[in-house]
């Protein structure tokens, strides 16, 4: 019997890194590793939207770290980002995406491989409004200037948060 893979949010990574909010993007974990540069335990993730791959994802919250330790977010797992914060790391001068909540859509054990655009059953995530897995419409990306853009220009302010609306 053929496995039906979840639809990834094609184009979401490009939108997120362009300072646009993407509501509940569906991404695949390609690989992750523990970072040991400080006293705080954190993980760096490489994720794919089926088109692009990005390694700028960081997880530092104890609740998510416990779930990583239990093996919930294994290689090739498809996840839904429920909340994340985009910011610029001043030490390296590049954007990072701090994940504060995510859930498993399909385990990596069931998928067993990296999904490409055709396998993830999807079209491009556009401003026209794809629907999420539960049939609810996705929010359009924000067209306002974000705090990430301000940080790049040296202006301080709050970080952009992409929470999930019910």
Question: If you had to describe this structure to a student in words, what would you say it looks like?
Answer:
There is one protein chain. The chain has helices spanning 12-17, 62-69, 108-111, 147-152, and strands at residues 26-35, 42-48, 53-59, 78-89, 94-106, 160-162. It has a five-stranded mixed barrel. The protein is of the alpha+beta class and 166 residues long. It has a single domain (12-129, 142-157), classed as Nucleic acid-binding proteins (OB fold (Dihydrolipoamide Acetyltransferase, E2P), Beta Barrel). Helices cover 14% and strands 31% of the residues. It starts with 11 loop residues before the first helix and ends with a strand.
Say which CATH homologous superfamily is assigned.
Nucleic acid-binding proteins
Number of strands: 6
Main pleated-sheet profile: 5 strands, mixed, barrel
Number of domains: 1
Shape: globular
Major beta sheet, strand line-up: 1-2-3-5-4
Written as H for each helix and E for each strand, in order along the chain, the element string is HEEEHEEHHE
Q: What is the residue-averaged pLDDT?
A: 75
Per DSSP, the total helix count is 4
CATH fold group: OB fold (Dihydrolipoamide Acetyltransferase, E2P)
Structural class of the helix and strand makeup?
alpha+beta
Shape-level CATH architecture: Beta Barrel
